[in-house]
Design brief:
Layout: E1 13-18, H1 22-35, E2 46-53, H2 62-79, E3 83-87, H3 113-127, H4 154-165, H5 170-192, E4 196-198, H6 203-215, H7 222-226, E5 229-230, E6 237-239, H8 247-256, H9 277-291, H10 295-304, H11 355-360, H12 363-366, H13 372-378, H14 389-409
Parallel strand pairs: 1-2, 1-4, 2-3, 4-6
Antiparallel strand pairs: 5-6
Family: Belongs to the CTU2/NCS2 family.
Keywords: Cytoplasm, tRNA processing
GO biological process, one term: protein urmylation
């Protein structure tokens, strides 16, 4: 897949996002094989790994989280790659800038893939062949403070749990988890200088995601959400190299090559709570796949026909606050967005609250900043006080900026001359 789509150039720093599941573990093994000396067409990028611990919201006890982290760290160390261990609680400390697209490449055209390969080989020759150029250490090293505690503070964990407990539906809970995870990975990539992020979504997962997002109202962004390349973040490109492999093929690959995996439990559901749209769509497609083996591949091929270039946002105000896609609200009447335009009183005591702060902290003020799908999710995320601080901070900044732009565009009427009647 990487050979057909030359988006990762020699010498690029690439962050591999691992969950411990079959697809991401198979992706890691294939990268290891591609970087080995015996491979005819070697991969020539510089890999690092990241694992996000989500045990707090998946119902694991501290002891179970410790055990999962120890198993995962053993697998990461065995690869010989540098690795990062992150916790979902760290997403609560992200800066507001994570919700802004980073600066993309300059307007000047970069070198071609062939020129990049030649330059990389020449650089390796200059450095000498003592260690084979891109050979890796025998044991992976953790990036960051090795003396840091394995689990975050209990107060942070409780704050994260309050955030997820306030969410009204399992569907919104799944969307919130995906958002926090990608923002945390994106922040690690930006601070550590990684230009690309590789995720392990398989063909089966892409097909499920395609129909799920369609049901969630993200039809305008299917090409970005499920395509091989996702460049909505500007400075960091997300690549999905496993999207042509079926889950069954990956399972056979892992079995025959003894690829170790660490399976995480699913998100717990509340009592008498209906399953999320994500789970329902997964059961539906996998059930069809049992009787009609071409179901997944047909859905996947249909998604391949989608335009890879969705509507571009010319300014920051035209991007969704949460997913960073271009706002699909050009004509609200045509899109039937009126049900999402909720109007509520600002939270708190209106008589004692600063009007500007009250306007910035009202739920209705957030709605114009969101795309159609994120509006539906936002309505189920619970009180504003439980939202991640970086989301509220960026929303306040955008609201204030929009108010300032509106005030600057208002031109006062000129007073009439005294002599005129």
């Amino acid at each position: 897949m990487l050979g057909k789509n030359r988006v990762i150039f020699p010498g690029d720093k690439v962050l591999l996002a691992l969950s411990g599941g079959p697809a991401s573990s198979a992706m890691l093994r294939q990268v290891q094989e591609g970087l080995s000396r015996e491979t005819a067409k070697r991969l020539r990028f510089i890999p690092s790994l990241i694992y996000v611990d989500e045990g707090a919201v998946r119902g694991q006890s501290p002891a179970q989280r410790e055990e999962s982290l120890a198993r995962m760290e053993t697998l990461l160390q065995a690869t010989g790659f540098p690795y990062h261990l992150a916790h979902l609680e760290q997403a609560l400390e992200l800066p507001a800038s994570i919700l802004r697209p980073g600066p993309g490449g300059s307007g000047e055209p970069g070198p071609s893939y062939k020129e990049a390969v030649e330059g990389f080989i020449q650089q390796q020759r200059q450095e000498g062949d003592r260690d084979g150029g891109t050979s890796l250490p025998s044991l992976g090293t953790r990036v960051g403070d090795p003396a840091a505690p394995r689990l975050p503070a209990a107060a942070r964990t409780q704050e994260l749990l309050r955030l997820f407990e306030a969410v009204e539906t399992p569907t919104a809970r799944e969307e919130l988890l995906q958002m926090l995870r990608i923002h945390l990975i994106l922040q690690t990539a930006r601070t550590r200088g990684y230009a690309k992020v590789m995720t392990g979504e398989s063909c089966t997962r892409v097909a499920i995601k395609l129909l799920t997002n369609l049901a969630l109202g993200r039809g305008a962004f299917l090409a970005v959400d499920t395509g091989f390349v996702d460049d909505r973040h500007g400075d960091v490109m997300v690549v999905r190299p496993m999207r042509e492999y079926m889950a069954k093929e990956i399972a056979f690959y892992n079995h025959f090559f003894d690829v170790p995996t660490v399976i995480a439990p699913p998100l717990p559901t509340k009592r008498r709570e209906k399953p999320s749209i994500h789970r329902l769509m997964e059961r539906f497609l996998l059930g069809l796949q049992e009787d009609f083996p071409s179901t997944i591949s047909t859905v996947y091929r249909t998604g391949e026909k989608l335009s890879p270039a969705p509507a571009k946002a010319s300014s920051e105000s035209q991007r969704c606050l949460l997913c960073l896609c271009a706002l699909d609200i050009a004509g609200e009447e045509e899109l039937a967005l009126e049900p999402t335009l909720i109007t509520e009183e600002p939270e708190g005591n209106g008589c004692c609250q600063d009007p500007a702060a009250a306007g910035a902290e009202s739920r209705a003020a957030f709605i114009p900043l969101l795309c159609y799908s994120c509006r539906l999710t936002f309505k189920e995320l619970g009180p504003l006080a439980t939202l991640p601080p970086y989301v509220r901070a960026e929303a306040r900044r955008r609201i204030r900026r929009a108010e300032m732009e509106q005030q600057s565009q208002e031109v006062p009427l000129e007073d009439e001359e005294p002599g005129e009647s």
